[in-house]
Amino acid sequence: RAPLNSSVSLHKGSFVATMLSIGLVVSLGGPLLFVLATKRFSLNSLSVPGRLVLWVLAAATFVIAAYGGGVWLARIGVKPFGWVDLASTIVAIIAMLVGAIALQILVAKLGFKDKGDLKLQQKIYSLSVQRRFFIVITAAVTEEVLYRGYAIGIGQEVLGNLTIAFVLSLLVFVVAHFTHGAKALAGILWISFVMSLLFVVTGNLFACILAHFVVDALGTLFVPWAASRKRARAALPVSEG
């Protein structure tokens, strides 16, 4: 009976390892294929169906991680959110914003222009607040599950090396955002690096989701709101006296 039990256990372990490897392919390749498909067939990746595709991919990898047992849920970063995680998140948010702004200034000084980036920005800003919020929350949750929680948290186990998982996740994340335009890629690379580092330091998926949400919300929700308020004030007639 002992050899039989050992064989069954080995078979189960091999099956779980295979499933986790498939999950890694989905987490890294799924969003990239989706972006390439939308570009190839001129589809609207910002549409509700397009955003739902990312939710499906994230859910699939989450289920695969959960199939591996509680230890794999811990690897993906599903754990309590403490004060140290909050402090690390705040530091990460500041670092991402300062770095992204510095890179934008540098790119502007170099005279680099990218019409593609401006067109995408205008397209997003033209959407309703509700649609933009849905885009922000989708990116924050699904991308962190796919690129940080699974690609790094479980990827390091599948690939056998944290550095390889870190770099692979970072590169694929940047490539999957090529539609944002070449001008934006430097900032995206920096933000992805800090986000990945936040996950490695805290091991907490919720910290990454919160940081991602705040950064995206500032650029997608707060900036256009502030700009519209500024234009409204400028349009007001100057009071006499």
General description of the model:
The protein has 241 residues and is mainly alpha-helical. Helices cover 83% and strands 0% of the residues. It is built from 9 helices and no strands.
Question: Which properties best describe this structure?
Answer:
241 residues, mainly alpha, 9 helices, 0% strand, disordered N terminus
Number of discrete helical segments: 9
- Radius of gyration (Å): 21 Å
Helix/strand order: HHHHHHHHH
Distance between the termini: 98 Å
Beta content comes to under 5%
Which structural class should the secondary elements be placed in?
Answer: mainly alpha
Overall outline: globular
SS elements, strand count: 0
Draw up the topology in text:
Layout: H1 2-40, H2 48-67, H3 70-75, H4 83-109, H5 115-125, H6 129-159, H7 162-175, H8 182-202, H9 205-235
Helix pairs in contact: 1-2, 1-6, 2-6, 4-8, 4-9, 6-7, 6-8, 6-9, 7-8, 8-9
In short:
The chain contains 9 helices and no strands. The protein has 241 residues and is mostly helical.
